[in-house]
Amino acid sequence: MNRSMLSKFNGPHPPAPSPEGEGEKIFVCWRSPSNIALIKYWGKKEGQLPLNPSISMTLHQSYTLTCVEAEFKREPGGRIISVNGEIQHPFLLKMEKLLIWLVQEIPVLGNFIFRVETSNSFPHSTGIASSASGISAFVLCLLSIAEKVNGGEIPLLEFMKMASFASRMGSGSACRSVFGGFTLWGKTPDVTCSSDLFAIPVTERIHPSLRTLHDTILVVSSTPKSLSSSQGHSLMVNHPFKLARIRQARTTVSELMKALTLGDLNRMAELAEVEALTLHALIMSSPGGMILMEPNTVQIIRQIREARQKGLAVFFSLDAGPNVHLIYPEEAVLKVENFIREELISLCENGFLIHDHCGTGPVRTIMETQ
Ligand code: DP6
What we know:
Elements: H1 2-5, E1 25-39, E2 44-45, E3 49-50, E4 54-72, E5 79-83, H2 92-105, E6 112-120, H3 130-150, H4 156-170, E7 182-185, E8 199-201, E9 214-218, H5 229-234, H6 242-262, H7 265-284, H8 295-309, E10 315-318, E11 324-328, H9 333-344, E12 353-357, E13 363-368
Parallel strand pairs: 5-6
Antiparallel strand pairs: 1-4, 1-13, 2-3, 4-6, 4-7, 7-8, 9-11, 9-12, 10-11
Helix pairs in contact: 2-4, 3-4, 6-7
């Protein structure tokens, strides 16, 4: 089943490596955004499949720009030669593993060697998932290369579905980044066509008032993560609350989809906050009992809840770290700016925050043969 998903990239006559083609290059760039999960993907099964469905909002300003140069080789390729001119990069292992898998799926990629240039629009360790944007940008480049080699254009939505499927193999959250607006990953009876294998866009079901939400990331600490995602997901394998968590996430997906459709921001706020706190509760109740929140994280959460009780349309989400995503609607921007200035900025590391908002998804920026 998995294999057939990318079969469109295996054209009827993939070019056989020929002496004439040696050294020919294809150059592709994609800009792909990060996303913030409102319902968290936490824990996975064999085959990089999620334990539970998740829903995210795609960001706009926080993206990775990746360019890949593919050079045609007669001898077996399918290798990354450099990332940013070097042979070391935090995601090199993930990218190499993913490339090995992709070459099995799309053999024509095995005829190239790859040079990757990649950069993020946002600083490291600030509560924005760089693997979601980085891995999806890399996959989009490789699939565009495969598409070009095969010479047949694949309709955009289909292309993105396959990009989501392939991105998932590199990083689960990356499969949600290939669509703009709101995205659902994981099989749920609430949404037909939902799948554990790839994410689907659900923005059309979302009330227009929620499609322009803002997300200001309040950076409490930019010290690198003490818990990697793979360590984190593995904590769920024997977690005492595993079954309850899966049940809870399924119900929350159902409830959140209703709230999103109705444009019910208050209900959305309640559900997203419980989700964020559940993620941390699961981490805290795992062996070793890690506490990833800082005192200022808790203080910010309290202030946000107090402000909401007083009528300000704000709520929070958290990733697996101390930084807080403050989410609010377009019409509250001015009031929230005041709120941040008066009550929250002093709780951020050197007053550090990053403004972002719901975005429209990845963009191919340049595509030319060199
Ligand atoms: C807490 O997608 O980074 O951000 O599949 O191992 O790469 P891998 O994990 P990753 O996990 C993200 C976990 C999370 C929640 C979420 O984004 O859904």
